[in-house]
Amino acid sequence: MNHWKAIWDSYHLNATLKWLFYDIMKHASLIDKILVFVSLVLVVTSLILVFTSSLFNALWTVAIGEIILFARLPTLKGSLIDSEFGDKNNNFLPHDDKHHQESRYLLFKKSLRSKHITSSHVKDCYELLETQLEIAGSAGSVLKKFASFSGGVLLGFSTAVWRQLDTSELLYVGSALVALCLFVMFVLLLIPSKVEKLREMKYFMQLYCKECE
Q: What residue intervals traverse the membrane (predicted)?
């Protein structure tokens, strides 16, 4: 068996935020699935309303969507973990639950054990992981430079346009930019960089080895 591929797949195909959300929805009831879908539609609709309607309507829409989403997802996640792993306090877990690491580590561990991966197999792959981290850290340097250049050009253009707007237009454009920035930030949180994922994968591998000792 290719142990490195098994470990890689256990993290990237089972333990990322995207796959945690997928597992939560897979185990959710039909009513909960509908509620989550409606909340996501409301959040997207609020972004459209920022540009097509009043800011008040957009704020109310996003508030309702986020209330539904954040009220149901933690409960659904708890139900998933209870049904799959029982009392999670009996498991060796990350020291905090930042970015839902506890739940995702349990999914990672479950996948490794189903593939009969031992701590020695994991330790043998540390060197490969470090190499992947080096590659990921050095990749995309040209893209980063281009992004910095494009950001500077966009900032200069925005400043020139900003000076030509009156007060009401400034408020409207400012609100739209804030909404856009919040949406981009939300997307970036759901899609971490390759380096961030590899570092977290290393952390999960270390936890697994400690638990197997």
A: 34-52, 171-191
Domain segments of the chain as ranges: 3-212
Are 4 and 128 in contact, with CB atoms under 8 Å apart?
A: yes
Neighbours of 181 (CB within 10 A): 10
pLDDT digits 0-9 by tens, 107-155? 898 899 999 999 999 999 999 999 988 888 776 555 566 556 556 666 6
- Pairwise CA distance, residues 10 & 196, whole Å: 16
Separation of alpha carbons 180 and 44, rounded Å: 11
Residues in the chain: 213
Whole-structure pTM value: 0.65
Buried b or exposed e, range 192-209, using 16+ CB within 10 angstroms: eeebebbebbbebbebbb
Q: How many Cβ atoms from other residues are within 10 Å of residue 111's Cβ?
A: 19
| C-alpha–C-alpha distance, residues 170 and 176, integer Å | 10
Distance CA 202, CA 196 (A): 10
